[in-house]
Design brief:
Elements: H1 9-15, H2 19-22, E1 30-43, E2 46-53, E3 56-63, H3 69-77, E4 83-92, E5 100-111, H4 128-133, H5 135-138, H6 142-164, E6 168-169, E7 175-176, E8 188-191, E9 194-198, H7 203-213, E10 215-223, E11 236-245, H8 249-270, H9 272-278, E12 286-291, H10 292-301, H11 313-322, E13 326-331, E14 344-345, E15 349-350, E16 352-357, E17 360-367, H12 372-381, H13 390-394, E18 403-409, H14 410-417
Parallel strand pairs: 3-5, 6-10, 12-13
Antiparallel strand pairs: 1-2, 1-4, 2-3, 4-5, 7-9, 8-9, 10-11, 11-18, 13-16, 14-15, 16-17, 17-18
């Protein structure tokens, strides 16, 4: 039986050639590659393996009587998605994908794959729930890898943009003693002798930090205990959060617009291959500003319902149709539709906003209440106990400037950039009402 001790990983890593590097070498060159068996075929006296690594695919061709008999027989028996090491010589071949192939001089099976429970072809016919049951195997597919390569670019671009803006990256607690936003749908946990909750937002903490360090950002995991089961919601998600001192909602809306544009520009530059594979035609979006009242009037003309203090999914979708490739900022939001920490604007309006992109909300934000007495008043109006927010309120008693910010869902923006039908496609290992594994 093969032992990993027989295969020196340290030595291999010194000599390893990625598949894309093999195509850059001349015929007759010796190479060492490793990866997954993407496909295999046996045509009598010729055995073919398509080997795949993170950089691409290459054909390994064994002709009977031209390679060792044990290698020829091994090629005929290796199962799909098994992990193999191949040492061999590059040969020019017009029939091989990419025009080059490897003639094997040694093949070692590093891990044998059992019978596959799902279709792992690039155009898999397996339904999403079963694919998610075997997500670790679903991730072998190039189309799925493409999604998370793009998502990686989104996170890196967000960090780059925020650092260029002068932002300070921070991390905040995930365990809290009371609701961050006033809702009741929280996941409870036991914390020694106390009852605590998983954080539904880093809102309160990023405000505290912005009041001393001015511009702060984070990528923060949030938990929402809503009992929904939709294609656009998750119970565990990641947020790209930003908060800025000496700013109102219009200042941070402008920052958000440029941030989304920067992210999409980077995706276009870095992920051209992934966008082509997924069939996505992406454009850097424009920005547009509308009041909530103006949106309500537009929807009235199209006979689409808008709530008293919130936009319906149908109205968001219509905004996407009317203003394609545009981040639409809907501001002057009704005060009753925003959390207690959003600054009032007159009697009925707030300094809150939502941002709609590709027919769906990607962000909520606004100017925050930084005045302790007003904050207490707003908490009481929302039927919340100010005593539960004492440390938060007290943080504004010692020189807190006006400030504003927003939070943008990582999975939501990934879903919309790539035109995915279900937000679970944009999560490595989704957590929703029914799923806790893998």
């Amino acid at each position: 039986m093969f032992s990993m001790k027989e295969f020196d990983l340290q030595e291999f890593n010194k000599k390893r050639n990625l598949v894309k590097e093999v195509f850059e070498k001349s015929a007759g060159s010796k190479v060492e590659v490793a990866g997954w068996v993407h496909q295999s075929r046996a045509l009598g006296k010729i055995n073919f393996i398509i080997l795949r690594d993170i950089s691409g695919k290459i054909q390994v061709t064994g002709v009977k009587d031209e390679v060792e008999e044990k290698i020829f027989k091994l090629m005929d028996s290796i199962t799909r998605e098994s992990v193999i090491y191949v040492r061999g010589e590059i040969k020019i071949s017009k029939q091989a994908p990419g025009g080059k192939e490897i003639v094997p001089e040694e093949i070692i099976i590093l891990a044998n794959a059992e019978e596959l429970p799902i279709d792992v072809s690039d155009f898999s016919k397996t339904e999403l729930p079963k694919r998610l049951d075997y997500r670790f195997l679903d991730l072998h597919r190039k189309r799925i890898q493409a999604i998370f390569k793009v998502q990686s670019t989104i996170m890196q671009a967000y960090r780059e943009f925020m650092i260029n803006e002068g932002g300070i990256e921070a991390q905040f607690p995930s365990i809290i003693g009371s609701s961050s936003e006033g809702g009741t749908d929280l996941f409870e946990a036991k914390y020694f002798e106390k009852k605590v909750f998983l954080s539904q937002s880093c809102q309160l903490y990023k405000q505290m930090l912005a009041c001393s360090m001015e511009k702060v950002f984070t990528i923060f995991t949030v938990w929402r205990a809503e009992k929904h089961n939709t294609i656009r919601h998750l119970n565990e998600a990641r947020q790209l959060d930003y908060e800025q001192a000496f700013a109102d909602e219009f200042v941070v809306m402008e920052v958000l617009g440029r941030c989304v544009q920067y992210i999409i520009k980077k995706v276009l530059e870095i992920n051209k291959e992934e966008l082509d594979l997924l069939g996505i035609k992406l454009k850097i979006p424009e920005t547009k500003y509308l009041t909530f009242a103006e949106v309500a009037e537009i929807m009235k003309k199209h006979k689409i319902h808008v709530g008293k203090d919130d936009l319906s999914g149908e109205s968001e979708k219509k905004l996407g149709e009317l203003f394609p490739d545009t981040v639409v900022f809907v501001h002057d939001w009704p005060l009753s539709g925003k959390p207690f920490y959003i600054m009032p604007k007159g009697e009925n309006l707030s300094c809150g906003f939502d941002a709609i992109y590709q027919g769906m909300e990607i962000t909520s934000g606004g100017q925050r209440v930084h005045l302790p007495e007003l904050l207490i008043e707003r908490l009481k109006i929302k039927k919340l106990n100010p005593n539960d927010f004492k440390s938060y309120i007290d943080s504004f008693r010692f020189g807190a400037p006006p400030h504003a910010g927003w939070g943008m869902g990582l999975e939501r923006i990934t879903m919309l950039i790539l035109g995915l039908n279900n937000i679970r496609e944009a999560v490595l290992f989704p957590r929703d009402r029914d799923r806790l594994t893998p």
